[in-house]
């Protein structure tokens, strides 16, 4: 439904997408950070994400803290992870139009 109703121009200007784009563009670590955020949303917790990524939970916590600082909201709570999940989904829709 979202893919059918939302086009690139309709998605443009969503602040969380701008932040995710900036994080993804960081040299050397942007791709890893976005992957970490995707896995965090799917796994539901920092420790579960760390297991999935085969990283120590402190390494994942550092990445998540960097994303939280940039986004301006926490990812430790359900509402923050939902907002992130929505932003990631919108980003995928924008970058892969149907």
Q: Please provide the count of β strands.
A: 0
Strand portion, in percent?
A: under 5%
Question: Multimeric state of these chains?
Answer: single chain
Number of helices: 7
- Biggest sheet details: none
Helix and strand composition category: mainly alpha
Overall, the morphology is globular
**Share of residues in helices:** over 70%
> What is the overall pLDDT average?
89
Order of helices and strands: HHHHHHH
Low-confidence stretches: none
Using the CA coordinates, give the radius of gyration. 13 Å
Gap between N and C termini: 11 Å
Would you give an account of this structure?
There is one protein chain. The chain is mainly α and 98 residues long. It is 74% helix and 0% strand. The chain has 7 helices and no strands. The protein has helices at residues 2-5, 8-11, 15-24, 30-43, 46-53, 57-71, 78-95. Helix 3 packs across helix 4 (30-43). The protein starts with a helix and ends with a helix. The mean pLDDT is 89.
């Amino acid at each position: 439904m979202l893919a059918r109703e939302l086009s690139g121009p309709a998605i443009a200007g969503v602040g969380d997408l701008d932040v995710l784009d900036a994080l993804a563009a960081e040299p050397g670590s942007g791709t890893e950070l976005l992957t970490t955020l995707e896995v965090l949303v799917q796994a539901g917790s920092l420790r579960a994400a760390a297991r999935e990524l085969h990283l120590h939970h402190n390494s994942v916590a550092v990445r998540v803290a960097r994303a939280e600082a940039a986004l301006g909201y926490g990812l430790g709570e359900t509402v923050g992870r939902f907002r992130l999940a929505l932003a990631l989904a919108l980003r995928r829709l924008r970058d892969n139009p149907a």
